[in-house]
Design brief:
By secondary structure, the chain is mainly alpha-helical. It is built from 15 helices and six strands. It is globular, with a radius of gyration of 30 Å. Its main location: membrane.
Length: 383
């Protein structure tokens, strides 16, 4: 009996060990399988990232970008320049790509490149030293200008009349084509109450053209490309925003018209957000001036009653559309407002902006400095 029990015990122990071994083998097999799957996923993700990184930034709507490569620049420094100028996605990947391809012989100088170039095309341009040609047409659009003022600047520098440029910009068939081509443009710009469909979408900057008198569409689309690239550059912030691109550009245009310094742009943005969160009317004077269509030094009580969806004294929320062409800093400020407690601000003639928490404080500030604007208006009218 004792031998039988002993044998039975040995058999059970053997079967238990066999079972444990099978379990271990299954765990090992599944672990290896999972690691293999993870490795494949990581490999495919890395491959797709590298493939995207070495490809063009925007092959559909390529934009010309001027860059300067200083003498003695390394591949790492060139990669940083290209990334900062929006020509590539990642400067570090560029550096490793150059090392992998064993490329060298980059030439210092000024270049006119495009966002439609991939790594190989950029490398060839920089190696061959295809220095930028002298532009036939150069003009600059300052930040914060109304679209009608932008049109006048373009007309002054080209053979196109302001009327012809405006006719193209307001052509609905052309606008529909642009909406199909640009992610930032939607049917909202076709609203009948919008004064200028592309207001706020034409980026203020210096423009260089190789032709002396490029087509109106070429000029417009060069300016649209700049704005689209800025939006793409900050896509993560845009996607996480509670506001649409149209609303963000509208806020940015208000900020641009009110602030002269970068610090004030972010603080004013914080004030605007505070008022929006409290369902307060924004009550900013530049929206009234835009609604009326006059550059006002002083906003009168009669002006404040001007009925327009742009008038933020009459209507709550963000206005129906942008009121000027904002620069990149104002657009970022609209995306990342400072965390402030202020609900009011007052811009002086000097550009200084004074902030306050209560309406009484704001009114006292306005009363103290209002005469500055009266004097500025008289001085301007006398010129």
């Amino acid at each position: 009996m004792s031998d039988s029990k002993e044998n039975k015990g040995k058999n059970e122990l053997y079967e238990e060990r066999v079972s444990q071994a099978k379990t271990v083998r299954k765990i090992v097999v599944w672990t290896l399988f999972i690691l293999l799957i993870v490795g494949v996923i990581v490999g495919l993700t890395g491959y797709n990232y590298i493939k995207s990184a070495v490809g063009p930034m925007d092959s559909d709507n390529p934009e010309h970008v001027e860059i300067t490569i200083p003498i003695g620049s390394t591949a790492s420094q060139i990669g940083t320049i290209l990334e900062e100028e929006g020509l590539i996605r990642n400067g570090t990947v560029f550096r490793y790509y150059v090392r992998y391809k064993n490329e060298s012989g980059f030439q210092a100088g000024d270049y006119l490149l495009t966002t439609g170039m991939n790594f190989d095309e950029l490398i060839n341009e920089l190696k061959e030293g295809s220095i930028m040609e002298d532009a036939e047409l150069i003009f600059t659009i300052p930040e914060g200008r109304w679209l009608v003022d932008m049109i006048d600047i373009i007309a002054e520098n080209t053979e196109h009349s302001s009327e012809d440029i405006l006719a193209v910009i307001e052509d609905e068939e052309y606008l529909l084509q642009l909406i199909d081509r640009y992610d930032m443009l939607t049917d909202v710009i076709l609203d009948d109450e919008i004064k200028q469909p592309l207001e706020g979408y034409l980026f203020p900057a210096r423009y260089d053209f190789m032709e002396e008198n490029p087509e109106i569409e070429v000029i417009i689309e060069s300016m649209l490309n700049r704005t689209q690239n800025i939006i793409n550059k900050h896509a993560e912030l845009v996607n996480n925003s509670e506001y649409s691109v149209h609303e963000l550009l509208t806020l940015a245009s208000i900020i641009e018209r009110e602030a002269q310094t970068s610090e004030d742009r972010y603080m004013i943005s914080g004030v605007l957000y505070n008022r929006l969160e409290r369902n307060m009317r924004l009550q900013v004077d530049p929206t009234v001036a835009y609604a009326i269509g006059e550059h006002l030094y002083i906003t009168t009580f009669a002006d404040l009653e001007y009925d327009s969806p742009y008038n933020t004294y009459l209507y709550e929320g963000i206005p129906i559309g942008p009121i000027a062409g904002p620069g990149e800093d104002s657009f970022i400020a609209a995306l990342q407002p400072d965390d402030v407690e202020y609900l009011f601000f007052y811009a002086r003639v000097s550009g200084e902006v004074l902030y306050s928490n209560t309406y009484e404080e704001h009114e006292n500030i306005a009363e103290q400095y209002r005469q500055e604007w009266r004097d500025a208006q008289e001085e301007n009218s006398g010129e």
